[in-house]
Design brief:
Shape: globular
Strand order of the largest sheet: 7-8-12-11-10-9-13-14
Helix content: 25-40%
Radius of gyration: 24 Å
Distance between the termini: 29 Å
Strand content: 5-15%
Number of strands: 14
Number of helices: 21
Bound molecules: FE2/S2 (inorganic) cluster
């Protein structure tokens, strides 16, 4: 076995070795633990402010069991935890900051291998990105989804249910008191959102990339098998260190292509586009928006799950989970079968015999839930660098549409006018929201799925074309064009759109255009000025360095990796 990295700290027979060992011994560790056992860092995003990860201290104990069993030495450490439901102005503002915390925490400490405990949306990409920039042997363990929400005898999905019933309140179909009653029914166990929102999508991406043991994505948080998976991951990470199997050997171009196709097959979140591009940038794998269109084109959605369908993650698990989906992809020649995974086997070896127990939840490739359901990349004079739309969540009658723009300059402008009965809008209008991109919000909030005007909801209108430089929650749905790049705050053409301009959307042709001639756009551009930089602190650094959505919204100076070497001692 290669010399352990941790021995650069613990095997030292000098003053530094004394310091490195002695302070740790205050926790009661016997001396022999420092004599050549692989040290496994358990990177924990536990926080009571991140409800989806609230059970992670217990989960970490199961990882430790496995590490001890395999002869390793587990040391748990906290990193910045990003809770989607509480963190303002948006958890995405801090994804890159958390990734820096992860990267430096791993690199600066005597760690030989890492187990990443991930759950709520941004905790997954931030940990993967930070760990990838160090490139040690690494295994991901997701926290698992909550049990299905149940309200008045029916399923109620995280997020998706909020968007649905809040519209019922705005249209007058549901009383506010009934709406609040649903609060306690939606989230009734530990775990993350149980729709195919961003957390479930990213947990699926971890598995499709080969970064977790098989089955990671769908086991509910409260199911005993989630703890078993954590324990087995603890055992396996020690072995990974002995094999010196680093993250960059798993995160290959083929692994990313598998993840992109898996995302289409599960009806996954548009947020995966941004996170996968950012992650690929950390391991020097070229990946761009066009790859999503090329690989996703013609891909069917196999999984009938909210927000694109009706089921929830518990149903997905009982039906066979992601291995059953990956098997379908493999049999349809839509999977790089030889992609290596963290258990040392190829992804195909892991999934080729995986059963599907319920075809109502996981459809076959030949009889999919929805045809042509990947994430489409749109381009045109409104989005020269691209925009995305989730085909599985659109309304068929709107995918080719021409309409008059109703433009909102900011989220505040939107909130102040959308409920106004006098707002000049009808069902053919296109709602446009500006200045909600990476720099504009800042942090590219999940506000792209704008609620519809109440007067149209009362007419029974359920969907309209919406366009913005924002993201949307993975739990949301509708004919929503997102991630318009460059964003308005960076001087993209979206900045110059005005109410009354006509917009044409043709998803089949992958086109999004505004019908405004060049001289008019030029004249409007001449009157435009960029929003001021935030005064200080993280927001200022972020806005100065954040890349655009089509580049993954990483910070420009974080792209790439530096390995795990630290040349100097601390004293
Ligand atoms: Fe944490 Fe949805 S709020 S996963």
């Amino acid at each position: 076995m290669k010399k352990l990295r941790s021995q650069e700290w613990f095997a030292r027979q000098d003053k530094s070795g004394f310091i490195y060992r002695s302070w740790l011994k205050n926790q009661g560790w016997p001396h022999d633990l420092f004599e050549g056992r692989p040290v496994i860092g358990i990177c924990n995003t536990w926080s009571e402010l991140t409800p989806c990860n609230g059970h992670f201290r217990e989960l970490a104990e199961f990882v430790k069991r496995g590490v001890w069993e395999a002869g390793g030495f587990p040391l748990e450490f906290p990193v910045m935890s990003l809770g989607e439901s509480l963190l303002r102005p948006t958890a995405m503002l801090f994804r890159n900051l958390a990734s820096m915390d992860v990267e430096e925490s791993i690199r600066g400490n005597p760690i030989d291998g890492v187990v990443l405990l991930m759950g709520c949306d941004k905790t997954t990409p931030s940990l993967l990105m930070g760990a990838a920039s160090c490139d040690l042997p690494t295994i991901g363990v997701s926290g698992g989804p909550m049990l299905s929400g149940k309200f008045r005898g029916c399923d109620l999905g995280s997020g998706t249910g909020v968007w649905q019933i809040s519209e019922q309140v705005r249209s007058g179909e549901m009383k506010l008191s009934e709406f609040f009653e649903a609060e306690s029914c939606m989230h009734r166990s530990k775990g993350h959102c149980m729709t195919m929102g961003t957390a479930s999508t990213m947990a699926s991406m971890v598995e499709a990339l080969g970064m977790s043991l098989p089955g990671n994505a769908a086991i509910p948080a409260v199911d005993a098998r989630r703890n078993t998976l954590a324990q087995l991951s603890g055992r396996r990470i020690v072995q990974l260190v002995r094999e010196d199997l680093c993250m960059s050997r798993i995160l290959t171009r083929n692994a990313f292509e598998n993840a992109i196709r898996a995302n289409a097959a599960i009806g996954g979140s548009t947020n995966a586009v941004i996170h996968l591009i950012a992650l690929a940038g950390r391991v020097d794998v070229p990946l761009c928006l066009a790859d999503f269109d090329r690989l996703g084109i013609g891909m069917p959605c196999l999984v009938d799950m909210q927000p694109s369908g009706s089921h929830l993650m518990e149903d997905f698990f009982y039906a066979g989970g992601l291995p059953a989906v990956l098997r379908e992809l493999g049999e349809a020649e839509m999977l790089h079968r030889d992609a290596l995974t963290v258990n040392g086997k190829s992804i195909w070896t892991n999934v080729k015999d995986s059963p599907c127990w319920n075809r109502a939840v996981i459809h076959s490739f030949s009889q999919p839930f929805k045809q042509n359901a990947g994430i489409a990349v749109l381009r045109g004079n409104l989005a020269p660098e691209g925009a995305v739309i989730k085909l599985s969540a659109t309304s068929p009658h709107l995918v080719q549409h021409r309409g008059r723009a109703v433009v909102f300059e900011s989220i505040e402008d939107f909130h102040s006018r959308i409920d106004d009965e006098a707002l000049d809008v009808d069902e053919n209008s296109v709602l446009v929201l500006k200045n909600c991109g990476p720099r504009g919000y800042p942090g590219m909030a999940e506000v792209g799925n704008m609620p519809l005007p109440p007067k149209l909801l009362r007419k029974g209108i359920k969907d309209m074309v919406r366009i913005s430089d924002a993201r949307m929650s993975g739990t949301a749905y509708g004919t929503v064009v997102l991630h318009v790049s460059p964003e308005a705050a960076a001087g993209g053409p979206l900045a110059f759109l005005e109410s009354g301009d006509f917009i044409s959307l043709d998803v089949h042709k992958r086109v999004i255009e505004c019908e405004v001639d060049e001289p008019t756009l030029r004249a409007r551009r001449a009157n435009w000025s960029a929003p001021p930089l935030p005064q200080r602190g993280w927001e200022r650094l972020y806005v100065k360095h954040v890349l655009q959505a089509h580049q993954g919204a990483d910070l420009d100076f974080l792209v790439g990796n530096s390995g795990a070497r630290v040349g100097r001692d601390s004293h």
